[in-house]
Amino acid sequence: MREAAYENYFWQNEKIRLRPWREEDWECLYNTGFDTSLGRLAGYRVSFPPTASEAKEYSKEVENCKTKDGRTVFAMETLDGVHVGRIIFSLDEERHGTFGIGLRIAKEYQGKGYGISAMKILLQYGFMERRLNKCSATVLETNEGSIKLHKKLGYDQEGLLKESIYMNGSYHNEICFGLTKTMYLKSISNTCEKSEHREYC
């Protein structure tokens, strides 16, 4: 099979490429299940010990961009093909134009800009291709990395849910973030000249 040409590929930018989740990606899912601190930040809980069978079953259910419970799972790869994590596009309510994005990156690949780069692709997809109007997120107040990421992307802090999460023996606050299409367009206007997708400028 001829090698794919990515020069005009929507699902990548200068740092990251998104591709459909594959059944064989189960091992990445399985291995990240051993990082309890990551699980607490992403899922607000301590999960039962991961199993290969559970990871394989989930991977089979969401492979090839199948939508499960309104969620579409993508694998995140570097431009060299290194699998660094997964990102989920979650359609909350199409009638109201609301959606969310969740991601999980293996610890050794965190802090390299992969998360924000992948988020930019799905924000562009949600706002410019799906006609959606608002992307919302709730973040644990101790998740400094996620808070910083959302602020960099132009999200506004819309509220605080006090002591709404119980974890590790105590209650924690959740920060509510929101990004509307109008805010999104404003946030990218300053960097539009550098964008690979100038058709949206």
Write the layout of secondary structure elements.
Blueprint: E1 16-20, H1 26-32, H2 36-43, H3 52-62, E2 67-68, E3 71-78, E4 83-93, E5 98-105, H4 114-129, E6 134-140, H5 144-152, E7 156-167, E8 170-180, H6 181-189
Parallel strand pairs: 5-6
Antiparallel strand pairs: 1-3, 2-3, 3-4, 4-5, 6-8, 7-8
Helix pairs in contact: 1-3
Pfam families: Acetyltransf_3
Protein name: RimJ/RimL family protein N-acetyltransferase
Domain N-acetyltransferase: 16-184
How is this structure best described in words?
It is built from 6 helices and 8 strands. The protein has 201 residues and is α+β, with helices and mostly antiparallel strands. The chain has a single domain (16-200), classed as Gcn5-related N-acetyltransferase (GNAT) (Aminopeptidase, 3-Layer(aba) Sandwich). Strands 1, 2, 3, 4, 5, 6, 7 and 8 form an 8-stranded mixed beta sheet that branches. Strand 5, helix 4 (114-129) and strand 6 (134-140) form a beta-alpha-beta unit. The longest helix has 16 residues, at 114-129. The chain starts with 15 loop residues before the first strand and ends in a 12-residue tail after the last helix. Residues 16-184 form the N-acetyltransferase domain. InterPro entries: Acyl_CoA_acyltransferase (IPR016181), GNAT_dom (IPR000182). It holds the Pfam family Acetyltransf_3. This is RimJ/RimL family protein N-acetyltransferase.
